[in-house]
Amino acid sequence: MKELIVNLEGKLDLQLGAAFREKIGQVLSSEPYKILLDASGIGDWELGALDLIREAATSHSESKFAVCNLVQGLGEEWKLSGLAKEIPTFSSREDAKSFLNRESDAKETASPGFVACPICFQTLRVQGKGNYRCPACSHTFYLTADYRTASFEKLF
């Protein structure tokens, strides 16, 4: 799952909310993302814009959203509007990133599967994404979350 950080700045009004919904819709139409909204730059907001953000999140349920750095008044309205159920709030960027990674890591490592070694085509049993070494030819490769192999190791 790809990751995207959106820095919201200025006034969160209907125009910005509609632009956000449109752009996120274009991005999420091809594949799911983990989206972190950083609201530290928002000075003023309209309630209607919150509804547009909710629409963007609920229309792409396979993607995961989180928001951080809400100013106090916006944080209260975020919770009162019920938006916190769709997009959880966090006090820092690190906390939000941790939440998004924890959610996706649990899904990516939940079920074992099978993959062919990219060199000798030996069938291997794997448990999610990560580095693997083929027991038949000793080739080391990386397996992505969507079970594609890459002929290199990932260092982190």
From TrEMBL:
Transmembrane segments: none
Gene3D superfamilies hit by this protein: STAS domain (3.30.750.24)
Domain called STAS: residue spans: 1-100
Protein name per Swiss-Prot or TrEMBL: STAS domain protein
